[in-house]
Amino acid sequence: MMEITAAVLTAPKQKFEIENIQLDTELRPEEILVKIVATGLCHTDIAIRDQHLPFGFPGILGHEGAGIVVKTGSSVTKVKAGNHVVLAPASCGKCSYCKSGHPSYCISFFPMNFGGIRNDGSCPYHSHDGTGIAGFFFGQSSFATYSLVSENNVVKVPEDVQLEILGPLGCGLQTGAGTVLNVLKPSSGESIVIAGVGPVGLAAIMAAKAAGCTSIIAVDIFDNRLDLAKELGATDTINSRELIVSEEINNRLSPGGVHYAVDTTGRNAVINQLLGSLRFMGTCAVVGILPAEKLEVDSQFFTMGRTLKYVIEGDSVPDIFIPQLIELHKKGMFPFDKLIRFYELNDINAAVEDSEKGITLKAIVRMPQ
Asked: How many angstroms separate the Cα of 242 from the Cα of each of 74, 216, 329, 359?
């Protein structure tokens, strides 16, 4: 057993509480103990707090962790003590989805990422009175000074890059960038619209620019975010409080419609506007958490070969894609550091509040060292 410090969520819709808890560090053969340096705050953490997605309480969230390997289980060969790593969502590595290069659609994705315990039913996280604490959120629960992870969801990263900024590559940033580069795969000169330019949407914009899209349209209701979108690669912006998106695109910005659309909002009205902005045979990818039970779209948008699809985690293979994003960042083609603001672990509730208010785009919570 070792004592660690963690931000624990004790009940739905409550603030995080900083607690010293016990972690059983007797590793399973495939497990790795990681000292967390910093963890990004993602909208999904807030969605869990508000119970839009299931997870146990008390529980440790955090799923954009970056850290240093402390020790490894007996069967681990990918990394060794001292390596710098980014943590990605858990996957089994054995099912047909994993083996075909789609670990985001792993057959065991939900129990492994939201179950809160090991596959064998054991729980290594406990309070001092012995109460079990749900862990392994997205295979990591990295709002803590140390995290237990499996070899499948650890990505070794170069040591010449600032480690504390890299965690968001494991979820939000790979979701936005991967949706463009791995799923939509635009050709140079094609057009795309991205709705909701928070961290995921801005990652999509940067990826679209890197892919050579010559018409990149950003949609949001906040002018300051739209200004940043232009700085990062958007060629045009639309404030959807002031203009009707589909009309603005079809009548002025891209007559006949755009090739691709990405929605990060999960909202019916926004998705319908994006579908109405597509050209014939265009594709709209939805990555946002859907707040309503039903997604309702106008049937006319499915004429002429248009497609609507939902994408998880950018449909990426993290071991391949995260290093690619780091290389793009080194070359100045994926400047995600412009989104970041740091908070200390004791200030995690301020990070949540600032993120919800739009004051901070991508909060990264640093662990006490």
From this structure: 59, 19, 34, 22
Q: How many CB atoms lie within 10 A of CB 187?
A: 9
- Average pLDDT for 24-43: 97
Largest CA distance in the chain: 65
What is the torsional sign of CA 76, 100, 194, 270? negative
* pLDDT tens profile 200-212: 999 999 999 999 9
Phi, psi of 251 (to 5 degrees): -90, -25
Domain 2-170+335-366 in CATH 3.90.180.10? The answer is yes
Query: In angstroms, rounded to a whole number, what is the distance separating the alpha carbons of residues 125 and 130?
Result: 9
Q: Are 70 and 149 in contact (CB under 8 A)?
A: no
CATH architecture assigned to 175-312: 3-Layer(aba) Sandwich (3.40)
Task: Answer yes or no: same fold for 2-170+335-366 and 175-312.
Answer: no
Report the amino acid identity of residue 347.
D
User: How many CB atoms are located within 10 Å of the residue 115 CB?
Assistant: 19
Whether the link from the prior residue into 58 is cis, omega within 30° of 0, is yes
Residue ranges per domain, the chain? 2-170+335-366, 175-312
User: What is the reported pTM?
Assistant: 0.95
